Amino acid sequence: MTSLDGLQSHFQHYILEEDPTFLREIAGADDAYRQTRLGVYYTAYRLRLVAALAVDYEILQALVGETRFGEIGLAYVQVRPSKFRNLRWYGAAMADFLREDARFKDEPLLSQLAEFEWAHGLAFDAPDAPHLSFDELAAVPPEDWGDIQFIPHPSMQMVTPNWNVVDIWHAHKDGSEVPEAISSEQPNVIAVWRKDYKSYFRTLESDESLLWQTLANGTGFGVACAELAASSDLNEEEAPLRAAQLLRGWIDEGWIQAYKIP
Amino acid sequence: MRSNYLGFGLGLRTVHYEDILATRPNVDWFEALSENYMVPGGKPLYYLDKIRADYPVVLHGVSMSIGSTDPLDKDYLKQLKALADRVEPKWMSDHLCWTGIATRNMHDLLPLPYTREAVDHVVARISQVQDFLGRRMLIENVSSYVNFEQSEMTEWEFLREIAERADCLLLFDVNNVYVSGFNHGFDPREYIDALPSERIQQIHLAGHTNCGTHIIDTHDAAVIDEVWKLYSYTIEAYGPVSTMIERDDHIPELDVLVAELDQARALGAAALDTRIPATA
Predict the structure, then answer these.
(1) Class of the CATH-defined domain B8-275
(2) Residues A84 and A6 in one domain
(3) Contact B42 A194 (CB under 8 A)
(4) Is A121 contained in some domain?
(5) Are residues A92 and A2 in the same domain?
(6) Nearest-CA residue of chain A relative to B40?
(7) What does the pLDDT look like over B2-39, one tens digit per residue?
(8) CA distance B191 to B152
(9) Residue ranges making up the domain that contains A235
(10) ipTM exceeding 0.90?
């Protein structure tokens, strides 16, 4: 190990673990002085990462308050040292952390809200792509409709909370009274996406969620309609009509990037 | 006048996007933080493209980690090059520092020891980066809070030798020299006098937080009088250099920063008058 390797290794270990053996490598009158100066780096590391998390998880912070959010942030920083060049991605594992960590896993609302907020971030700066238009779709020959496949817009995100995260999110955004946290047996399927540089989200109906999942996996439209009929109250004649209605809505909202005929 | 002189600029910040497009402020150029635009798509790149259409833009990075003993991150460099191909910046800069090792990132501009070994290491890496990007880099001096026992030279000797051997340009942060001068007890003017004037391509001005025993480089406040005086001294020493205000936290309305930038214009002009007395 060269002296530069050694210094960087010891310095980083000080920032992560406050290892006092590094003090002797710092010039200064005494250890108190050295600790104060190294403390700037030790503190800045944590402050900067927690501040980045507060940007990604604004509503989670509003829900639990600054003090508890600071505790959550520091716990995350301790368990998940950053491996990212770009702070943008540092908070990616927050929902998993809150779901798994013994200190927070008994409050699933926290991880579900985090997941919802992260989905907003992913939709916000997802790759740019066109949105399929009605005119493009009108040009598809009728004989190809059985096989046609749809490519979701890259900004499309789906989350499935069973706690009322949307109501809580809205209340904090609007400054209205925050509802009591409640859960349901069945999860809600919520789409989050971007169109014209604006982010949107809404809850899907159950048959809509079924059809979307099937089509988003690359299944052809004919088979997807058959699966919709098999998995819902719709018969084989009603299912294609319902599917066409849903498809029109998705195109209007910008959920679909393009189609392909295999 | 040095080539590539752009005048007086501001750091491009998200909260000002709409204002910039709506009001076309009296700002000659913008500095965009590279990492903010190293994302797949969406609004950040949309606004950067719009602003780039009307203003010269330079790119300023915080994560190249040019001084780290980890290998250079090729993925990062490829993304940076792709961004440069899109933005066509007037120039690109990063800091004389390291940000982490063993694939970890401390998200800080950590100081290097001022040693021969570190000079050799950094010179080789700047050369690699310049070859890869196909352009000369600007390297910026950072604020620091510690000095290392193993250092063999002053910071300005270290910076000068690196710049000359790597044949790179310099982004001179006046506030950082003030902060480090306060923290380590050196005269910032000695630092300014020692740098190779012809390599100074850009200047940063910013505010900081004075903790009494030391100063922290927080970029969250207005430029203080002592730093303005040092800026005047810098322009007297180097001549006209593209100058900008860098605010990263507690970001005020755009017009507040434009007014602060006007102060830089006035002081810069006065310093040039002092430097080159008007002929009768």
Answers:
(1) alpha beta
(2) yes
(3) yes
(4) no
(5) yes
(6) A127
(7) 678 999 999 999 999 999 999 999 999 999 999 999 99
(8) 16
(9) 129-262
(10) yes
